[in-house]
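Final report, closing paragraph on structural work. Over the funding period we assembled a curated collection of sequence-structure pairs, and we close with a single example.
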Amino acid sequence: MIHQRLRGDRGSTLPIYIWLTTILLFAALAFFAFAQAASARNGAQSAADAAALAAAQEAREELLLDLGDAIEAGDDWLDWLDLPDGALPADGATAAAQELAAQNNSALLGGAEPTEVNGNPGFRVGIETEYTVGDSVIPGTEDLTATAQAVAVIQPRCDFDVTADPTKPVALVCDGQPVDIDPGNFNPNDLPDASVMFSVRLAE
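Its predicted structure, as stored:
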């Protein structure tokens, strides 16, 4: 009698084990799907960050060339060190951002859009991954891509006497490094690397 009852108990618990196993398996697959989506989002954000930095770095290189031109032309080149409105060149920013996005298996959405954050000029970019989240238990993920945005800004790094005469030798201190510029005896090759005079960083 007791033996028959035990056999009946084992028979009744088998469907419960199957049901619990099915739930746990589905939960594991769902968790994997969310992990796939998180990985795609992280990849998209990394691509956006790289593209924004590339845009700002390209503009920084162009900025240094324009600064050299201003010194040779005898303009008030000291204004360039503070990045006044309109001083940030943007000709090559979009191409640089596109190249970095492509290297990260992503495409640039639109162009590198000039923007400003806390008074610092920069670029905002948006990207979309060229890969999808992948197959999962959640319908539609096999065609789902990830998007992200990022902003990178350029900041001046040089201190100088604001009353200095731009037509005479000027002593700058750029991130602790002395930079002497003599407009009367100027060689553009004497300018330091652009990273010494202007920093580039992610703003968002």
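The two ends are 73 Å apart (CA to CA). The first strand starts at residue 106 and ends at 117. We thank the funder for supporting this effort.
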